[in-house]
Amino acid sequence: MAPSLLAANFLELGNEVEMVNRSEADWFHLDVMDGRFVPNISYGMPIIAQIKKKANKPCDVHLMIEEPEKYAADFKKAGADSLTVHLEACVHLHRNIQQIKGLGMRAGVALNPHTPVMLLENVIRDLDVVLIMSVNPGFGGQTFIEQTYHKIQQLRQLITESNAHALIEVDGGVGPENAARLVKAGANVLVAGSAVFSSPDPEKTIRLLKTSAQ
């Protein structure tokens, strides 16, 4: 389970990080947007570096940006433990994956809702994580796209048939109401932002998501 800090209260960021540290969450999910690949801008290396100072769990950085290869080393320096790039933003995807792994991070590739999983066929064995976007990237609080369940099943089949080891991560509209079904479809890691940070008891919600997914 990976709470998305995009939905956190940034005036209380240190406290929000401490809450995730105390919780049963596995990773911090950090969304980076450039206003070009997606129609929004979030935060970058300086904020991630500050989060890393307090985080006692891995930092899972999701780059929703153009030309991610220009910044991979900087995100590693800022504290990224895993780095996920979008297939749609990478002209030379295999090169991007090898760059990330060469820097000592877990390598992930994200797919937008319209992108078929079979486009990963020739790189799936090189990946540590595949991030399935269950909303269109760029904004939090969107409605979950139902086709995602089928897409996860297709990806799970591809991973199994390829003898690959990639974790399936799902991001967008994830909450206690669909967590169990997502895991049943084949997901390993659930990213939740609004469902966690807008709840009256975020730690309890994280626990509930973990329980629902078991």
Automatic annotation (TrEMBL):
<dbReference type="InterPro" id="IPR011060">
    <property type="entry name" value="RibuloseP-bd_barrel"/>
</dbReference>
<feature type="binding site">
    <location>
        <begin position="171"/>
        <end position="173"/>
    </location>
    <ligand>
        <name>substrate</name>
    </ligand>
</feature>
<feature type="binding site">
    <location>
        <position position="29"/>
    </location>
    <ligand>
        <name>a divalent metal cation</name>
    </ligand>
</feature>
<dbReference type="GO" id="GO:0019323">
    <property type="term" value="P:pentose catabolic process"/>
</dbReference>
<feature type="binding site">
    <location>
        <position position="173"/>
    </location>
    <ligand>
        <name>substrate</name>
    </ligand>
</feature>
<feature type="binding site">
    <location>
        <begin position="138"/>
        <end position="141"/>
    </location>
    <ligand>
        <name>substrate</name>
    </ligand>
</feature>
<protein>
    <recommendedName>
        <fullName>Ribulose-phosphate 3-epimerase</fullName>
        <ecNumber>5.1.3.1</ecNumber>
    </recommendedName>
</protein>
<dbReference type="Pfam" id="PF00834">
    <property type="entry name" value="Ribul_P_3_epim"/>
</dbReference>
<dbReference type="InterPro" id="IPR000056">
    <property type="entry name" value="Ribul_P_3_epim-like"/>
</dbReference>
<dbReference type="GO" id="GO:0005737">
    <property type="term" value="C:cytoplasm"/>
</dbReference>
<comment type="function">
    <text>Catalyzes the reversible epimerization of D-ribulose 5-phosphate to D-xylulose 5-phosphate.</text>
</comment>
<keyword id="KW-0170">Cobalt</keyword>
<keyword id="KW-0862">Zinc</keyword>
<dbReference type="GO" id="GO:0006098">
    <property type="term" value="P:pentose-phosphate shunt"/>
</dbReference>
<feature type="binding site">
    <location>
        <position position="62"/>
    </location>
    <ligand>
        <name>substrate</name>
    </ligand>
</feature>
<comment type="similarity">
    <text>Belongs to the ribulose-phosphate 3-epimerase family.</text>
</comment>
<keyword id="KW-0119">Carbohydrate metabolism</keyword>
<feature type="binding site">
    <location>
        <position position="62"/>
    </location>
    <ligand>
        <name>a divalent metal cation</name>
    </ligand>
</feature>
<feature type="binding site">
    <location>
        <position position="171"/>
    </location>
    <ligand>
        <name>a divalent metal cation</name>
    </ligand>
</feature>
<dbReference type="GO" id="GO:0046872">
    <property type="term" value="F:metal ion binding"/>
</dbReference>
<keyword id="KW-0479">Metal-binding</keyword>
<keyword id="KW-0464">Manganese</keyword>
<dbReference type="GO" id="GO:0004750">
    <property type="term" value="F:D-ribulose-phosphate 3-epimerase activity"/>
</dbReference>
<feature type="active site" description="Proton acceptor">
    <location>
        <position position="31"/>
    </location>
</feature>
<feature type="binding site">
    <location>
        <begin position="193"/>
        <end position="194"/>
    </location>
    <ligand>
        <name>substrate</name>
    </ligand>
</feature>
<feature type="binding site">
    <location>
        <position position="31"/>
    </location>
    <ligand>
        <name>a divalent metal cation</name>
    </ligand>
</feature>
<dbReference type="InterPro" id="IPR013785">
    <property type="entry name" value="Aldolase_TIM"/>
</dbReference>
<dbReference type="InterPro" id="IPR026019">
    <property type="entry name" value="Ribul_P_3_epim"/>
</dbReference>
<keyword id="KW-0413">Isomerase</keyword>
<feature type="binding site">
    <location>
        <position position="4"/>
    </location>
    <ligand>
        <name>substrate</name>
    </ligand>
</feature>
<feature type="active site" description="Proton donor">
    <location>
        <position position="171"/>
    </location>
</feature>
<comment type="pathway">
    <text>Carbohydrate degradation.</text>
</comment>
